[in-house]
Design goal:
The chain is α+β, with helices and mostly antiparallel strands. The chain is 32% helix and 22% strand. A seven-stranded mixed β-sheet has the order 8-9-10-1-11-19-12, sandwiched between helices. Strands 14-18-13-17-15-16 form a six-stranded mixed β-sheet. Strands 4-5-7-6 form a four-stranded antiparallel β-sheet, with helices on one face. Strand 8 and strand 9 form a beta hairpin. Helix 9 packs antiparallel against helix 11, helix 10 packs across helix 12 and helix 14 packs antiparallel against helix 15. The longest helix has 18 residues. The two termini are 35 Å apart.
Amino acid sequence: MKRLLAIGLALAMVAGIVPAVFAAGEEKVLTIGVDQEAIGLDPHIVTSFSSHRRVDLLYNKLVRHDENLKIVPDLAESWEIPDNQTYIFNLRKGVKFHDGTELTAQDVEFSLNRILDPKTASPGRSYISNIKSIEVLGPYKVKVTLSAPLASFLEGLASNNCAIVSKAAVEKYGNLQKVAVGTGAFMLKEWIPDNSMTLVKNPNYFEKGLPYLDKIIFRVIPEQASLLAGIKAGTLDMAQINDASTILLAKRDSNIVVMQKPGINVRTFGFNTTRKPFDDARVRQALSLAIDRNEIVTVAEFGMAQPTGPIPAGATQWALPLSKLPYYTPDYAKAKALLAEAGFPNGFTFKIVTANSFEGGLSVAQVIQNQLKKIGVNAELEVVEWGIYIDRWVKRDFDSMVELRGGSGEPDRFLYRTIHSTGGVNNFLFKDADVDRLLDKGRVLTTYAERKPVYDELQVVLAEKAPIIFLYCPFETHVLSKQVKGFKQVGYGSLYYLIQTQK
C-alpha cells in the first residue's frame, strides 16, 4: 500500500499536481518566543504587557494607532465630531465576533459602559471618564457625548483597555480572562499556562485577505538567551528581546534580523506614598537626587534607551528637557541634607519589589540599589515571580516598585491614569490637589497652545513632589528570522502588524 502511494505521488509530481496541492495546504505558522506568561485576556481588565500583546491580535477598538502613532479607523470606519463634546462613530458592517455573532452598536454601548463601571476596575476608565451619555443611533452608529471636552478622547479609545467586547460573551462567562470572543484577526485555540498559547486565523476577519498567517504560537521562554538561541536554531521565528547584552549578540549575527525603534513606554521607580517614610516628599526628593539616569541606561540597557521625565522623551512637542526638572540631576550632598531634615541623618532601609523579567526590572533595581548607597540608604530587593509581582502591584503591597509603564505621546492619556488621585493605575496612592488641578485643566483644553503651559507646569510639579521617579524609555526591539516579512513596529510593543506579516 505504501509503495502504491509513493508511486501515485511520484506520478502526481511529474504531472505538476502535488506541488500545487501541498502549497495550497501548507500551514503558515509563526512561532513567537516571549519571556513571560499572559495574566488574563480580558481587555478591559488586563494591565501587563504580556497580556496586551495577545489582546493586540484577539480584539479590535473603535480606532487604533498605525506604525507612526497616528489615529486611524478600526471598528469605526469613520467618525464625526460636530462639536468638541460630541463624537459620532460609524461602524463597519458585517464584522463578526469569533463565536459568529455580528458586532453592532449595542456591543459598543455595552463595552464603554462596562469600562466606565467602577466594579469592572478597568484601567481604561480614566481614558473615557468624561463620557456623559452613549446613544445607539442605529445598528452601526453610536453617539458619545462628553461632559466636558477631552483632548485625548480618541487616543484613549485606541488603547487595548477600550477594546470592544461581545455583550453576549460577557453575560455568558462573567469575564473574559480565560476566553477570547473578540473580532480580531486571530482566535484563541489553545492555552497551556506557562507553556504556550495558540491562535488561529479568523476566517471572517473584516479586512479582506488578512491575516496572511494561519497560526501564531506564543511560547513562554523566560531566559532571554534562550529566546535568541531559538531564533538561531529556527525553532522560533520571532522574539521580543529586552536584555541589552542579548540584543548586542543578536546584532552580530548576519543570519537574523534585529528591528529596533525608540519606544514610548516608560521605566519608573515609584513609591507607595501612604507608607512611611515615603509619605514625606523630602525623602522622595532625596532619592530622586541620588538617581543617575544615564548610568542606569548604560548599565541596565547598554545605552539602548532614552532618559526621560514625566512625559515620554519621544513626545518631543510635550516633554521638557531633564535640565528643567528639579531633583533630576544627581546631587548627593543635597540629598543627604533632605534626609537629615526629614529625620533620617543616617539613612534608612526599605524594599524594592521587582521581578526577574524585563518588565519587572531587576537589572534596573540593582543599579538603583547601588546608587542609593551613596546617600546612606539601604534598598533591599524583593525579587518575586511574575504572578506575585502583578498581585503585589494590584494590591499596592510594596514600599517601592520598579515598573515598565505603557506610555503615550499624548500627556493626558499617560499621566491622568497614572497619577491623578482617581487614576486607574495610580498604584502610588498619591493624592495632590495641585497635580489633580493641572491634570483636570490639561484634558479639557483643546489646542496645543493652551495645553502646553499646563503640562510644562505639571512636569515641574511632578518632579518636585516625586511620587514616581521617571527613568527612561527603552527602545522597542524585535529579533526575527529572515523568513519573516512585513512586520512593523509601533513604538510601545504592539504586535498588531502581525496581521500583515508573512512567512
